[in-house]
Amino acid sequence: MWTAGYFSFEQYVERAERFEGPTLAAARGWANALQVFVHLGSFVEVDDSGRLHNTSAVIAPDGTVVATYRKIHLFGYGSRESELLTPGDGLGVGPVAGPATGITTCYDLRFPELFRSLVDEGAEQVVVCAAWPAARLEHWRLFTAVRAVEQQVNMIACNAVGEQQGVALGGHSRVVAPTGEVLVEAGADEGFTHADVDTGLPRRFRAEFPALADRRWPTAPNTPMKEYA
């Protein structure tokens, strides 16, 4: 929610925009100019009914939107997000530099069923953007690692830094492999962080250690078990 600042709840209505608005247009320009995939996470979207959403998108180098996501799990603890916004009702999955990539946002990290649903849709890596407070930094580290290991995905996690409305944010953006290895972790200050990600590792690791294939709980009653490559 960087266009308003996550904790600047009084700015949500003023900063809200249509999906095809100036923020998406700017991100398309960045993706095209730099010839990279851009994860636009996230901004305040207003839909045709006037409802507000915490919305993210992934843009390809040619400017195409390959995935969108409206945050499903809205935060209520010391936050007005659940009061002001409407939760999404669909998954965000799209191809990013090859592999199917799932999109999640902040508080979603606490809900493993969402990540398993993304894997059921073919995701081999997951991106999460966040305004995760410093007070719960160890939870951030724990959940980003656990989701990578339990879902056997590359986890690319970006967290805000600094202070918003008196809340210190934790930073420590990180990339975690499905093996649990932390490929890179940033600090608590603004900066640039990068990692070389082996996009083929999730599939190889799933074949070597087929925990997903051993699953014995279907996604819904009378639904066949998912087969994982």
From TrEMBL:
Entry keyword set: Hydrolase
Pfam families from the UniProt entry: CN_hydrolase (PF00795)
Domain CN hydrolase as annotated: residue spans: 1-199
PROSITE patterns: CN_HYDROLASE (PS50263), UPF0012 (PS01227)
GO molecular function: hydrolase activity
Family the UniProt entry places it in: Belongs to the carbon-nitrogen hydrolase superfamily. NIT1/NIT2 family.
Protein name as annotated: Hydrolase
Organism field: Nocardioides luteus
